[in-house]
Amino acid sequence: MPDSLLPKIAKKLVAPGKGILAADESFPTIEKRFSEIGVESNEDNRRKYRQLLFMIDKVEEFISGVIMFDESIRQKTDEGKLFPEVLSNKGIIPGIKVDMGTKDMANFPGEKISEGLDGLRERLVEYRNLGAKFTKWRAVITIGEGIPTDTCINSNSEALARFAALTQEAGLVPIVEPEVIRDGVHDIKKGEEVTYKTLKGVFNALGKHKIKLDSMLLKPNMVTSGKDNPEKENPEIVAAATLRCMREVVPPEVPGLVFLSGGQTPQEATANLNEMNKTKGNPWEISFSYGRALQNPVLVAWGGKEENKELAQKAFFKRAKLNSLARDGTYKTDMEVGE
């Protein structure tokens, strides 16, 4: 793909009123989510569930792209069409998660490093041939006693930059995801401090690797306190802290921020996104790339039963529409009631 197309794809992924569905659950993650609704995590059940999500009528009004997993990018519909083809035909851009998950960092207790750089150049060519137009790599940063260390932040930043460089070399748009996870009892001030430091390290590494900023997207966490901290912030405080941090670190050349939901409830993730979009004059699009915050209501409605397919699709359509409204700051909490 010519380099000149990459900025156009990046902008299309953050088109007004639209966001990204993160449907890139690893085998252990989707097994956990299926077990919560009493569904066996076998290949056919996973295929049926993804087909349910990808073939919702008119969902392209709210969803610009879908991040898939290695299994799903190879799967087909009942009619024998590959999922990337189905999405492309609807005007939805197919993407692929390319990291191989996190591992414990040697000599750094409590800290993680994402793996998957070995053989990535070759895998990117295969994914591009399968129809992918963008990629995603997630790094995990944990707040705790004495952590994160500079070594952890710098190591993950370097991996993210190498991933982004290989992705752009392959003619694909990288989504760079450095997630400061919510685990812990820290307050929002600490959350902002670590998010700032992490993003500073990431963009320093991206610069060293000559990443084209107009041909990538950032998938950051929102700035919150730890999930075990009894003090919970309202959307106004979360939005103010998050935007303050982003303005200090993220260059204006980046087309958009596609926030992760990070363990928030669907309602919290939508309300916080909405509040950020009430603030005008940001240099980037403020969008979403949600997994659980879009899918939890769908899984509950579906329950693995074919007769619940339409109900589950309606649940996803509603959730996607509410987040579309949050893209321009017009979502209201009373919209959660009824259809």
- Number of beta strands: 10
Q: pLDDT below 50 for ≥5 consecutive residues: which ranges?
A: none
* Tally of DSSP helical segments: 11
Radius of gyration: 19 Å
> Biggest β-sheet: count, sense, barrel?
8 strands, parallel
Number of domain modules: 1
Task: Estimate the helix proportion, in percent.
Answer: 40-55%
Derived from helix and strand composition plus strand pairing, the structural class reads alpha/beta
Mean pLDDT: 96
* CATH architecture term: Alpha-Beta Barrel
What is the rounded distance between the termini?
42 Å
The SSE string, one letter per element, is HEHHEHEEEHEHEHEHEHEHH
The CATH H-level homologous superfamily: Aldolase class I
Overall geometry comes to globular
Overview of this structure, please?
The termini are far apart. This protein has helices spanning 6-13, 27-35, 43-54, 83-89, 120-129, 150-169, 188-208, 235-249, 266-278, 292-302, 309-326, and strands at 19-22, 63-68, 93-97, 102-104, 112-114, 134-141, 173-180, 217-218, 256-259, 285-290. The chain contains eleven helices and ten strands. With 339 residues, the chain is an alpha/beta fold. The chain has one domain (3-336): TIM Barrel.
Give a brief description.
By secondary structure, the chain is of the alpha/beta class.
List the helices and strands and how they pair.
Blueprint: H1 6-13, E1 19-22, H2 27-35, H3 43-54, E2 63-68, H4 83-89, E3 93-97, E4 102-104, E5 112-114, H5 120-129, E6 134-141, H6 150-169, E7 173-180, H7 188-208, E8 217-218, H8 235-249, E9 256-259, H9 266-278, E10 285-290, H10 292-302, H11 309-326
Parallel strand pairs: 1-2, 1-10, 2-3, 3-6, 6-7, 7-8, 9-10
Antiparallel strand pairs: 4-5
Helix pairs in contact: 6-7, 7-8, 8-9, 9-10, 9-11, 10-11
